Amino acid sequence: MKQNIETLLQNADIPEDLQTIANKVINGKRISDNEALTLYEKGELAFLGMLANFIREQKHGDKTYFNKNFHIEPSNICIYNCKFCSYARKIGEEGAWELTEEDILKTVESYKNKGVTEVHIVGGVHPKRDLHYYGKIMQKIKQIIPDIHIKAFTAVELEYMIKKAKLSLDEGLKKLKEYGLDSIPGGGAEIFHPDIRKEICDEKASSDMWLNIHETAHKNGIPSNATILYGHIESYRHRIHHMSELRKLQDKTGGFNTFIPLKYRKENNTLSHIGEVNSIEDLKNFAVSRIYLDNFPHIKAYWPGIGKNTARLSLSFGVDDIDGTIDDSTKIYSMAGAEDKNPKMTTQDLVNLIKNAGRTPVERDTLYNEIKIY
Ligand code: V47
Ligand code: SF4
């Protein structure tokens, strides 16, 4: 594979700076922030895809992961007002929902003996719900399905509920682990650069807080994911700064499983006027992420956010995971204008999508233990 790509590079008319970066990549060397910028600014899609795919195949061959999961969104009531968010409502506002504990547990009951391995719980930052409220719900979820993996609460939700319980981050995360929290999803990261964070979500947990929560979680044996929200007012430099913070933290802790680039979707939010980036930009961004984040085991294309077609194409641009069956249990993206209004895929749909891209479908659990190869 290395020889093939070297021959291709020699024969193609590729500028010297890109050749240098390609040589680094194929020899397993880390690229710098400036080199990432060169890739974003000068790298053609086919070139970026070739390098990202080289890394993806070195790490995972043709394997493409998915899982059987469902989401619970306890409430979309949120004290914050992020400009890109189409989902949050205030108490009493039209479109606001609050599930009761009974509603939540009834949903969990309905997944008993269905083969799901993960429940992903996230929502707005509700002013009245605290760590112990959610902790007790997690305990009850595990009484219903004891071996389910609970991936729950963005760092933004965690900051609020831990502060409300008057605990330190360390104490709060330890307590949540005792209650049944197994891992933390990647949301709330958005863009770490202060110039952009100030513009799009200045009220909620700061970038340092986000990083601190994930670091503290990793130290307590709670793995996590990381996201970036791209395609709005940020520049390539901001994306690289974001990934650089994540790469540094991953060097320190090794606690991240997967990086999930989330494309900004424009319907029903305050940033709508700026529009959306196109699929070429999506694929480019997946590829540069795969090349830059050499210490992240996985890159995920979250299909309800990006659509099934781009998710399939992304499998040739560094992505090795497309998340799960979902079962129409999340509203974040349908409310923001994503392609699938009722996101739901059967195992067979996921297997077909992956096979149509010429890859090998592998059902995984949240921590990437393989459950079944199709
Ligand atoms: O932090 C909100 C994003 C995130 C919009 O860890 C939007 O496996 C685009 O983090 N356009 C929450 N994005 C979702 C999330 C996630 C999703 C899937 C898997 C995992 C994982 C994590 O959704 C928020 C924000 O970045 N978001 N509004 C929007 N209009
Ligand atoms: Fe609240 Fe999250 Fe929406 Fe921000 S993105 S307003 S924190 S629900």
Give a description of the structure.
This protein has 374 residues and is of the alpha/beta class. It has one domain (59-373): TIM Barrel. It is built from 15 helices and 10 strands. The chain has helices spanning 2-11, 16-26, 33-42, 45-60, 101-110, 131-144, 155-164, 169-179, 194-201, 207-219, 236-253, 279-292, 303-306, 308-314, 347-356, and strands at residues 63-67, 69-72, 118-121, 149-152, 224-230, 256-263, 298-299, 321-324, 360-364, 370-373. Strands 8-1-9-10 form a 4-stranded mixed sheet, covered by helices on one side. Strands 2-3-4 form a 3-stranded parallel sheet, with no helix packed on it. Strands 5-6-7 form a 3-stranded parallel sheet. A hairpin with a 5-residue loop joins strand 9 and strand 10 (370-373). Helix 4 packs across helix 12 (279-292). The chain is globular. The protein starts with a helix and ends with a strand. It binds ligand V47 and iron/sulfur cluster.
Name the features.
374 residues, alpha/beta, TIM Barrel, 3-stranded parallel sheet, 10 strands, 44% helix, binds ligand V47, binds iron/sulfur cluster
